[in-house]
Amino acid sequence: MSGYTGHWVLTPLGWLYEGIMRVREWMYESGALKSMDAGIPVISVGNLTLGGSGKTPFVMEIMAQAREMGLRLGLVTRGYGRKGKYPVILPNGSPDLKVEQIGDEAAMILCKSPKAAVAIGKKKSLAARDLAKTRVVDALVIDDGFQHLALRRDLDVVLFDCSVANVHDRVFPAGALREGMCALKRADVIVLTKWNLTSHGSNLEKIVKDNAPGKTLLRTDMTASGVICLNKDGMTENIDSLKGKNVVSVCGIGNPDSFGRTLRDLEMRIVGEFVYRDHHWYEQRDVTRIEKACRELNADCIMTTEKDAVKLRPLISAKAPWHALEIGIRFHGEGREVFKKELARVIGARFREPEAGKAVFST
């Protein structure tokens, strides 16, 4: 498994940590601690494990589904790894804002949707309240929000990365779980992501069903939709044009193994690989080293992720063959319609009166 794996020796600490998390959960359930109501519908997208599980592509899918319904969703994120200290509220987007101020995930979303409403802050409940007060969004999506019980939510979506084995075994620091599997009882929808990158998804599906009977359970695949040429004003190429090419892989994400598997599934030959910590801030020396390796290995191009690209673009050489892989998700079967109905249900149940000129939503 990539990322944090822990060690069985730390199991007693894992029990202690899980106990603390259960007491915290009970305090919110009993009312001893209060969850803030943002005043508009809130959809949380999170996971039980440390590291990446495909939350950002899923958040973008939710925002796309909302647009299909004539609604505008705002994104609330902590802005992991950003260098700015203060909360940032962008009710009308700001694609020109520096990535250091807002974080790589928010910057990536704004690159693809320049007018997206975004709130970035360490205290997500306060950021959500401030964005809701602008009255420019109909609902909020909270990135990595499953453990953020300080904010009331209307739909709790939990993602499980199928490409990571044994995610269910032990709680941090003994393992990679943020909470025990019993926490799944809080979820409304559970999504098994990256199903196409593994052969043991059925094992995880059984474990999830045993711990969360009766919950809506969906499967998604990670899909590559195109390749962005970073030195050609963001021009997109057909992904088939890189089949059989020698590539240098570069990423700083939660589950780097899945990126490498995706490139290989697309029939690219990885001749060099640079793996950095999640949310790594690249320096010029990193880029110089990568581009030198590309030349020495006679690679056809350098492949990175969209999240890394927003940080790398200002540093790369004008003639270096940098490309970013566009990633999306594909639901299995009728999964997309099932999820869209869940989304319509919760937004319709709490939908506020629209402002003049805004779409009226009905279920």
Estimate the mean pLDDT confidence: 87
Radius of gyration: 21 Å
Structural class: alpha/beta
Distance between the termini: 42 Å
Kindly state the number of beta strands: 13
Residue share in helix: 25-40%
Reading the helices and strands in chain order gives: HEHEEHHEHEEEHEEEHEHEHEH
CATH class designation of the largest domain: Alpha Beta
Q: What is the name of the CATH superfamily of the largest domain?
A: P-loop containing nucleotide triphosphate hydrolases
- Specify the oligomeric state: single chain
Measured by DSSP, the beta-strand proportion falls in 15-25%
How many domains? 2
Description:
The termini are far apart. Mean pLDDT is 87; it is low at 352-363. By secondary structure, the protein is α/β, with parallel strands linked by helices. The relative contact order is 0.16. It has helices at residues 11-30, 55-68, 99-102, 104-112, 124-133, 201-211, 256-265, 284-296, 306-312, 335-350; strands at 42-47, 73-77, 88-90, 117-120, 139-143, 155-161, 189-193, 216-229, 236-237, 246-251, 269-275, 301-305, 322-331. It contains ten helices and 13 strands. Strands 1, 2, 3, 4, 5, 6, 7, 8, 9, 10, 11, 12 and 13 form a 13-stranded mixed beta sheet that branches. It is globular and about 60 Å long. The longest helix has 20 residues, at 11-30. Helix 4 packs across helix 9 (306-312). It has two domains: 8-222 and 330-350, P-loop containing nucleotide triphosphate hydrolases (Rossmann fold, 3-Layer(aba) Sandwich), CATH 3.40.50.300; 224-327, Rossmann fold. Strand 7, helix 6 and strand 8 (216-229) form a beta-alpha-beta unit.
